[in-house]
Amino acid sequence: xxxxxxxxxxxxxxxxxxxxxxxxPEDGPLLIFVHGWPELSRSWRHQLPAFAxxxxxxxxxxxxxxxxxxxxxxxxxxxxxxxxxxxLELLDGLGRDQAVWVGHDWGSPTVWNLARLHPxxxxxxxxxxxxxxxxxxxxxxxxxxxDRGLYPVADYPYGQWDYMKFYEENFARATSVFEANxxxxxxxxxxxxxxxxxxxxxxxxxxxxxxxxxxxxxAAPDYPRxxxxxxxxxxxxxxxxxxxxxxxxxxxxxxxxAANTAFVAGTLEQLNLPVLFLHARYDFVCETVESQxxxxxxxxxxxxxxxxxxxxxxxxxxxxxxxxxxxAQWLASALPDYWPMPATARA
Length: 347
Hints:
Elements: E1 7-12, E2 17-23, E3 30-34, H1 47-53, E4 57-61, H2 80-93, E5 99-104, H3 107-117, E6 122-128, H4 139-143, H5 162-169, H6 171-180, H7 182-189, H8 207-210, H9 232-245, H10 248-252, H11 257-264, E7 275-280, H12 295-300, E8 304-309, H13 315-318, H14 320-334, H15 343-346
Parallel strand pairs: 3-4, 3-5, 5-6, 6-7, 7-8
Antiparallel strand pairs: 1-2, 2-4
Helix pairs in contact: 2-3, 5-6, 7-9
C-alpha cells in the first residue's frame, strides 16, 4: 500500500490474471475504472484517492496486454468478448454482484458492452470521450458517423478513423514505430487538447497517407513533456510497462472490429440504467460536442446525463477536478442509494 492508501493486487483465474489498483473501504460501494490505449491503471491516479476518500471502494485494472496483467500473442485474444469476460471475472473475484463502471478510450466500449450485455452487473455506467453505439459496434459503425463536411469522402474515406485502418493494413509498421522508443511515444501522445485545432481534420485522418503515425519516421520525435497531463514519474511508469510488454497487445484492440461487431449483433440496444457521458471539448479525434457521434447514444440511453469538460482526449489526467466533480455529482443525483454510508452507519 502506498502513501495514498492504494493497494496493488491481483485476481487470478484459470484463463487470465488481472492486476489492479484498489483503495477505499472494502465494504464501500464499488467503482471500477477501465483504461484505454495505451494506458494503465495509473491513468486513474487522480480518481482513486478522491473517491476512496468519499467512502467508495475503487478499483482500476490493468487491461489485458497492459502492465502486470496477462499478455497474449494473437490478435483475437484482444477481442471485446475476452476483455468483457476479464471484467466479469474481476467483479466475481471482488465478491460483488454489481459495480458502477467508468471507462475511457478502449475502456469505453468495454463498459458499454457490460451495460448492454450484462446490465444486472452494472448499477450504472459512465464513460469519457467515446460514446455508446459507435466503437463497440465495429469500424464500419464509426465510419458511418464521420462528419463529411470536415472529411470529404474522396479525400478522407475513413475520416478521423483512418489510423484504425492503418493498424489493419500495416500492423507491424505501426507497432514497431511505437516500440522503437516507448518513452518518446508516450511523451508525445499524452498532451492536452488545443482549441486551435477545432474545425480542422484530425492528424489521425492522414496516417495511411503519411505512411505512419509519425510519417516516415521510424520512432516518435522528441517533444517536450506536457506537464499539464503527466509528470516525469508518470511517463517513466508508462514507458517501463510498454517496454516490458510491447505494443502488440494494446494495438491488437484495433484488430478485432469484425469479431466485436458479431459479439453484440442482435442484442438489446437500449441501456435502461443510469448513464453519464463526459464530452471532451478539445478531443478532435473523437469529437462529440459538435458532430453527430453522440446521436446514437442519446437515442438509446433514456437515463442519460451529459457534461462537457474543457479538455482533450486524456480527460481524467488533464482535468481531474472537473472529471471527479462530474462523476460525484452524477453518482449523488442519479444513484443516490449507491452513495456511501458514513463509516459509523456501516459498522
